[in-house]
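Changelog excerpt

This revision adds worked examples to the README so contributors can see how folded entries look when concatenated. The first example is reproduced verbatim below.
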Amino acid sequence: MRLLFDQNLSPKLVSLLIDIFPDSTHVQNVRLDTANDIELWEYARDNDYLIVSKDSDFSDRSMVYGYSPKVIWLRRGNCSTDAVAGILRNHYWDIQAFADDSSQGLLILL
């Protein structure tokens, strides 16, 4: 299960979550920090990543275009990087089940 963290999330999440999401990366690490949503979407799809974002654009895109890639939408206002890492840790099994479920393309975490 590989996560691709969107620009609106901290690159530090990669190192904070390496123990449970070891093959994850941030858009900066793959030179997509200035890419548009379509480019990021295609990269995630082509490289088997789940997109993690606080931006509703990807959830909207998944509703229109379906998936892959799958999208994890963090519906949390301003919060620390540690809080985001905590949310993802607390929902590890939900994320795992979501990744394995071929009938779902959007997971909303609060």
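The second example, added in the same revision:
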Amino acid sequence: MLASAGDSLPAVTTVATTERNLLIDLLKLFAVQVIILHHLVSYGKIAADADLLLPTPSSVIFEYGRYLVHGFLVIGGYLAARSLRWRAGPKDPIGLIVRRYFRLVPPYLGALTLAMLSAWFVRHWITEDYVGGPVTLGQLAAHVALLQDMLGLESISAGGWYVAIDFQLFAFLAIAHAVVRGEARLAIVMTACMFATLLYFNNDPRYESFFVYFVSSYGLGVLAGVSRHARLQRTRRLATALIILVGAAIVILAAQGANGRSVVALATAILLLGAPAASALEQLPPWLHTLIRWGGNRSYAAFLLHYSWILLANLIYSNIQGVNGWSLGAALIGVYAITWWSADWFYRHFELRVNQWFKAMPMLARGTASARKAGN
């Protein structure tokens, strides 16, 4: 359940920026591959046969694959920190929030439409819980408002919760910065909120449907973004020190058997901070650079669409008698192939065009102008 859409403005083209962007694309590409595999071993006859034929790998991916969502949250926080380009603070946080909504939601609604059609079709032959029931008008309205989990409603598609959480976290960040006015102050406030999450909210499952449960992961990304992009060296040093402080707390908690998900977030933040990974990527051949960027750009679309293809694949696979390794392999490869084919089409013909249309809207244009003005 994951994936994040990057919402950064075009960055100044430098070698370092190019390397970091390639690293982000690689992290997104890797994470979404694991999430797709996690959902494949979670739903339907494909999951049941995977558990029979490959019990250990299937169990590990089922248990820990979902942790990769915290890597996406770190990347989301990092890109948000980089795109806001803080100095005196954005004067129009509402405009930025509205722009973020229209960046995330139109592709999300397009994918929900495919999920509803797939579930409606599959429901004629499969009645298992993972297919879900008929979608109600109230359920659909809650998804449009990104409130489905907060209201306790059934999700239409696996991973839809992440889009809601990503939006809530961005809104929290934009409003927090508009209030505190300054990178250093925001880094301190964010760190305090991260400790509240680690020590309290993460220990209460009632908060899993709210952004406060994920502030520690998103905040690591924000601190990493401030550490790399803050204008003042002392602010960059402060952000780095705060990452070390939060990281120490995460390691201590993980050693006590608590909050292992945050370890993935910490590892992602460390990768974003360090130059060695970026330098290693620079040595890769150009065709691999192209492949990584291609996959990174389409990772959000792949995340949104893959559940529909898992539903349809399970419908086909459920008609196969017995447990067959070749058939299982074909099903897994087929889901990946059609997911990335559809993600490419969706990205080029829907996601990019919708973003262009909404950028022309006055309120969204003001949000963009505010972010750019803060970076001047």
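Reviewer comment on example two: The longest helix spans residues 325-359. The two ends are 37 Å apart (CA to CA).
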